[in-house]
Amino acid sequence: MSSTFEQIANIIAETCDIPRDTIKPESHAIDDLGIDSLDFLDIAFAIDKAFGIKMPLEKWTQEVNDGKATTEQYFVLQNLADRIDELVAAKNAGTGSAS
Amino acid sequence: MQLETFQLIDRIVDLNLDAKTIVVEADVPPDSHSVFAGHFPGYPIMPGVLLTEAMAQSSGWLILGLTKFERMPFLAMVKEAKMRGFVSPGSVLTIEAKIEHEGSGFTVTSAKVRVGKELKCNAELTFRHIPFPSPDLRVHMDALANKIGFPLQAMSNG
Q: Is B158 inside any structural domain?
């Protein structure tokens, strides 16, 4: 089974028509790949479906706006993959996820 | 439909918050309406963009119900919009919408427009939704909900 990063990278490549080989674990979705908020909605939809989760985009955005987190924590793809793994683990543990 | 004020939905027929579905009706204006003067002379048909907006408004009422009128949906994306048949003046549209996905701050729906049993168009629609950005807008939506028969009791049951 492919890694979470691989799955995300494939989703981004397909959704945003970005060459797959330009998408790296260290890529920043916004700053490096130029993904805008509308395209990210499409990506979030695909990731939610693929992993059976609900990425808490509003909570993440609020944390960034409040200065409690940086965009790198959520939008550098390896970090995004780690967040997704946490959400999947929480779901499997039956603790649910914040929305 | 009141095209001048962009109110495309006339009646809510069914709202099921458990199944996350809605059915509404909309009366297409007669051929004397100005929209048909240009679309098209001698061959009046409903513009596809207005049919798409009707699907969006139908989905919007469903999202309003699911969020208990605490969040206002705004159309963000239209995918796979297919205009499958012409819609004539005076037609009665039956529009069905259902939730495909509820994300964080966004919702994806699918919607279909029928005239009688004939499928006229369908699309997948994505909405961002945010807390009501204006008290006036909330008042307006409440009034509109009352006008089109939005079943407020469905929210207390849901």
A: no
User: What residue segments make up the domains of chain A, in order of their start?
Assistant: 4-92
Query: Is residue B63 within 8 Å of B124, Cβ to Cβ?
Result: no
Active-site annotation holder among B39, B101, B129, B140: B39
pLDDT digits (tens, 9 = 90+) for A33-62: 999 989 999 999 999 999 999 999 999 999
Q: In CATH, what number is assigned to the domain containing residue B33?
A: 3.10.129.10
**B92 shares contact with chain A (CB less than 8 Å):** no
Q: First and final CA of chain A: distance in angstroms?
A: 27
Q: Which residues of A touch B101 (CB under 8 A)?
A: 45, 48-49
Q: Which domain holds residue B19?
A: 3-149
ipTM of this model? 0.86
3-state DSSP of B130-141: EECCCHHHHHHH
CB B128 within 8 A of CB B105: yes
Residue in chain A nearest B125 by alpha carbon: A42
Which of A41, A56, A57 lies nearest to residue B77, judging by beta carbons? Answer: A41
Q: What residue type is assigned to position A57 of the chain? A: L
A63 close contact with B: CB closer than 8 A? no
- A36, A39, A41: which to substitute to probe chain B, counting the most B Cβ within 10 Å? A41
Q: Measure the CA–CA gap between B77 and B8, rounded to whole angstroms.
A: 19
Q: What residues contact residue A94 under an 8 Å CB cut-off, 6+ apart?
A: none
CA atoms of B152 and B56, how far apart (whole Å): 20
Architecture of domain A4-92: Orthogonal Bundle (1.10)
- Please state, rounded to an integer, the average pLDDT across all residues of chain A: 91
Q: Are A77 and A23 in contact (CB under 8 A)?
A: yes
